[in-house]
Amino acid sequence: MAETIKALVEGGKASAGPPLGPALGPLGVNIMQIINTINDKTKQFDGMKVPVKVIVDPETKKFEIEVGTPPAGSLILSEIGAEKGSGSASTHKIGDLSIDQAIKVAKMKFDNLLGNDLKHKTKEIIGTCVSLGVTVEGKKPQEIQKAIDAGEFDSKFV
């Protein structure tokens, strides 16, 4: 039966140390091969914690790596270059996200969002900006969501 190891690693910087090394060691697999594969698959999430699942068949020593995506909030903060969200989101704004950046984040999180299409998934990402204290295109996130509903950004969703 396959063994599954779950870990949270920094994008592109997994190492043979804890948490992966000690968990993989007893399985008798090539640890560096697994680490290099994880780093290759997570390099676009540089500086963010990424959930990773390593599935190993102990008999054949074959492995499969599933990479999750960081939380939407982390991706948004990375896009605007902020360390953390605003402590008081309604009064203190920490940055501004462009509609293109919101679409980029929606594409990264595509399979984990509930919306039916990119337009609705982007609105979901913009909704996350509200609690982080992030404006979108210099306006309140709710205003941009209404503008998306009105079709103002339809050319971006083609």
Layout of helices and strands:
Layout: E1 3-10, H1 20-24, H2 31-42, E2 49-56, E3 63-67, H3 72-80, E4 95-97, H4 99-108, H5 118-132, E5 134-136, H6 141-149
Parallel strand pairs: 4-5
Antiparallel strand pairs: 1-2, 2-3
Helix pairs in contact: 3-4, 3-5, 4-5, 5-6
Written overview of the protein:
- It is a single chain.
- Helix 3 crosses helix 5.
- The protein is of the alpha+beta class and 158 residues long.
- The protein is elongated and about 55 Å long.
- The protein is 38% helix and 17% strand.
- The chain contains six helices and five strands.
- 23% of the residues are buried.
- The model has no long low-confidence stretch (mean pLDDT 91).
- It has two domains: 65 residues, 2-Layer Sandwich (Ribosomal protein L11, N-terminal domain), CATH 3.30.1550; 86 residues, Ribosomal protein L11/L12, C-terminal domain (Arc Repressor Mutant, subunit A).
- The strands form two sheets. A three-stranded antiparallel beta sheet has the order 1-2-3. The protein has a two-stranded parallel sheet with strand order 4-5.
What value does the average pLDDT take? 91
**Termini, distance in Å?**
44 Å
**What summary fits the major beta sheet?**
3 strands, antiparallel
What fraction of the residues are assigned to beta strands by DSSP? Answer: 15-25%
Give the beta-strand count. 5
* Helical percentage: 25-40%
Specify the number of helices.
6
Name of the CATH first level of the largest domain: Mainly Alpha
In what order do the strands lie side by side in the largest sheet? 1-2-3
